[in-house]
Amino acid sequence: MKVRLIAYMQFNPEYLRQHNLPVRNGEWMASALMHSTRTREGLLEILRETCEEEVVDRITKSVQWGHFTVAGMLDFIFEIEGVSRVLSHQLVRHRMAWFLQQTQRSTDPTHLVPILPPTVTEAGMENDYSQHWDKTKSLYHTLVEKGVPIEDARYILPNATQTRLVMKIDGSNLIHFLKLRIDPHAQWEIRELAKQIHSLIKKTCPNLFSEELKEYWW
Amino acid sequence: MKVRLIAYMQFNPEYLRQHNLPVRNGEWMASALMHSTRTREGLLEILRETCEEEVVDRITKSVQWGHFTVAGMLDFIFEIEGVSRVLSHQLVRHRMAWFLQQTQRSTDPTHLVPILPPTVTEAGMENDYSQHWDKTKSLYHTLVEKGVPIEDARYILPNATQTRLVMKIDGSNLIHFLKLRIDPHAQWEIRELAKQIHSLIKKTCPNLFSEELKEYWW
Amino acid sequence: MKVRLIAYMQFNPEYLRQHNLPVRNGEWMASALMHSTRTREGLLEILRETCEEEVVDRITKSVQWGHFTVAGMLDFIFEIEGVSRVLSHQLVRHRMAWFLQQTQRSTDPTHLVPILPPTVTEAGMENDYSQHWDKTKSLYHTLVEKGVPIEDARYILPNATQTRLVMKIDGSNLIHFLKLRIDPHAQWEIRELAKQIHSLIKKTCPNLFSEELKEYWW
Amino acid sequence: MKVRLIAYMQFNPEYLRQHNLPVRNGEWMASALMHSTRTREGLLEILRETCEEEVVDRITKSVQWGHFTVAGMLDFIFEIEGVSRVLSHQLVRHRMAWFLQQTQRSTDPTHLVPILPPTVTEAGMENDYSQHWDKTKSLYHTLVEKGVPIEDARYILPNATQTRLVMKIDGSNLIHFLKLRIDPHAQWEIRELAKQIHSLIKKTCPNLFSEELKEYWW
To answer: Is D105 annotated as catalytic?
Structure first.
């Protein structure tokens, strides 16, 4: 499994230039937007006057008070490779995220080894598992040679087949996703994904996704 | 594939009784709700005075003008059985519907025959297809006997494995779903589902989902 | 303020008739749908065999465990009359509900008295408040006579002006709405609305919206 | 009315640095993400090999074919000042956008002149309009002095009162918003907003929001 944070919400450089503002990160932006709902001051004044401590304080309170819209202003795009269709079927259920998934309707994914659950190895069944994959792969190619369209040949491909997705999710729904999927009841593969996402996102938004605020996750 | 319309939005019987109103169907309700936004008259007066022709006229216009909220007031719950996980993986992507799907984490689905694409039969590969299923099934049970949890044994189950879902969807998103999935570019299995849903829903909402309005679908 | 539950999700009578099932309420339906994801048994068997205690038990657990989709299967339509545009502006922010609101673009709402906050009466300012309304009303009509379209004349109408809405909301988002708006921090008018909705909905879904489960609301 | 594009989805600079990629704009990103669903090639190869013409071609097709998810990957945050609560009440109905609005519960907005519809001026009623505002303002302050909380004093403030919002919206829902609100049937103030947003966004995403593609807007 490989997860990369490829894009996220950032200030319009043109806006910063025009108003002579320093580059600020997403937490700074979200905390300023939040604060602007409660003051006469416009966003520009807030951005000029806010100090680091205020940002940390406002971000922390927004999570503690469940102000979803603050985290909701920040969007993130993740690239997710080397996962099974067990995972992707669960993942695309998250209705408030947007997905682009490699389609099996027009792409042959059999050059990649299928995902292997650790319990199969522990049960000493790894060889049977991979021999079965070889047979599946071979039947897939025979079907295609006999004229079956690959969108139909894929009916024999297992859940374990590798897939690749792009997920766009806002910070508020990401908090909900992490709460649900880092939980020990979550299935092992999606749990691994949630942990990798959490570790990536903490670098970009250390306050919003801090360990200390986990108990407030919604 | 078996599709049933098991529930839908209906007037509160208590409300009808209190106000001495006759039982009216969903289109009557939606057209009255729509009309109430543009008049001084309350909903009760509208429900008492509206005639059949006005209902047909208002429903027709709501589709022609793209007034999503009219159809959006009507929700439907469908039970969908005997479909593959190719279909369910596509289906749960529809973000504005709600799904409850039989889980492979705790349920063994191998007593049901897998979905067979017609092109496999046409290619004379039906026997190979079903022999491969027998081997897959047998390996699945061996894995479980060796102590692999069924949530991991399922990694070898194919896309063709039968599943069962419940889908709740509002009329507006259903119109979008039908437009997308009755289209000739749609994959054959989800197309078949869309057609069955359309034929069921036309009985309950003949004006909203009429053939004549298909060109206005959004 | 007048709130009525005018419609909600109910079993398709045709489905009950075909399968010879007794009429069941929404909680029965939602609990059966939830249970069907975890069993080999189909929905019909579950509906035939479930007893009252099991329904109560499953509904209770669905709230305690935060299984949103169970409550999410049940939709409700409320008619809301005699509220201000302070309330409606806040209300339509709830993004997962659907609204139909009486428009001021084509309807003159000045025959109805404006909403009066209790604190205005307490401050002895009721007369000034209603005299100001009379002047506003009179200017509104002058503007219209002078040829100002009513969609522009309404710019002088106050927040207190009465409006009327229809809200469709599913059970899961209703739980969130009630949590947020029954809270003592909520504004008094929307709080009153939330209380009236809660008291109506408890009659229809006594277990899902029971007082005992309030601590689990999301 | 003042509208500013303050932030939008941009590549993670760290990701570009690590993979030695040049800075690319949002359309480049969205077109690459779209293309990656249909190829064996990973996103990195696509980003390295794509030429300008291919980007234009893919973006154009995504709109023509109604591939919502391509535009849906790009989010934008707008700051909107100097608009009435007629506009904001309509605006926050767009359910797929996120809003942060200056609250009248804790902020006194009476230092700003109310929005004046051109038809009021044309009818020669500008003086009456502004005298009424002075009386309203004066009553508002009397109410506050007499102890009425400002969250209740605002009940007399007119629809014309100035407000300020932040709106986050993805490209797909923005296309829908523009279609609906640039339309001649839209109310004049929100139409003006839509036009300003369109002219801002065309600078950042000239292909996605080009005049030529307007007929395909959904």
So the answer is: no
Full strand arrangement of the beta sheet holding D75-84? A98-101, A162-170, A75-84, A2-11, D2-11, D75-84, D162-170, D98-101
Q: C79-88, pLDDT tens digit by residue?
A: 999 999 999 9
C-alpha span between C200 and D1 (Å, rounded) = 43
* Cα-based distances in Å from D131 to D114, D126, D127, D167: 11, 9, 6, 33
d(CA C136, CA C108): 13
CA distance readout (Å), A77 to A7, A74, B35, D72: 5, 10, 42, 11
The sign of the dihedral angle between the CA atoms of A170, A173, A176, A182 is negative
Q: Measure C197 CA to nearest chain D CA, in Å.
A: 21
C84 part of contact set with chain D, CB < 8 Å = yes
Q: Which helix (H) or strand (E) holds D9?
A: strand D2-11
Instruction: Kindly list the residues from chain A whose CB atom is less than 8 angstroms away from the CB atom of residue B151.
Output: 187
Pairing of strands C2-11, B2-11: antiparallel
**Which chain C residues touch B166 with a CB distance below 8 Å?**
33, 36-37, 43, 73
Nearest CA in chain A to B152: A117
Alpha helices, H only, chain A: 13-18, 26-35, 43-49, 52-64, 68-72, 85-91, 118-122, 126-145, 150-153, 171-182, 188-204
Upper half-sphere CA count for residue B55 (Cβ side, 13 Å): 19
- Neighbouring-strand partners of residue C98: C168
Please tell me the pTM assigned to this model. 0.95
Say how far apart CA C66 and CA B21 lie, in whole Å.
38
State which residues of chain C have pLDDT below 70: none
Residues A47-105: pLDDT tens digits? 999 899 999 999 999 999 999 899 999 999 999 999 999 999 999 988 789 999 999 99
Alpha carbons A161 and C205: distance in angstroms, whole number = 43
A-contacting residues in B 163-202 (Cβ below 8 Å): 187
Q: Taking the CA atoms of A45, A46, A48 and A50 in sequence, report the sign of the dihedral they define.
A: positive
HSE-CB at A137 with a 13 A cutoff on CA atoms is 16
Crossing angle (nearest 10°) for helices C188-204 and C171-182: 140
d(CA B153, CA B144): 6
- Residue pair B98/B167 in contact (Cβ under 8 Å)? The answer is yes
Exposure string over A168-178, b if 16+ CB within 10 A, otherwise e: bbbbbbbbbbb
ipTM: 0.94
Chains that touch B (3 or more CB pairs under 8 A): A, C
Tell me the H-state helices in chain B: 13-18, 26-35, 43-49, 52-64, 68-72, 85-91, 118-122, 126-145, 150-153, 171-182, 188-204
Q: Which residues contact B214 (CB under 8 A, 6 or more apart)?
A: B179
Contacts of C159 in chain D (CB under 8 A): 85, 104, 154-159
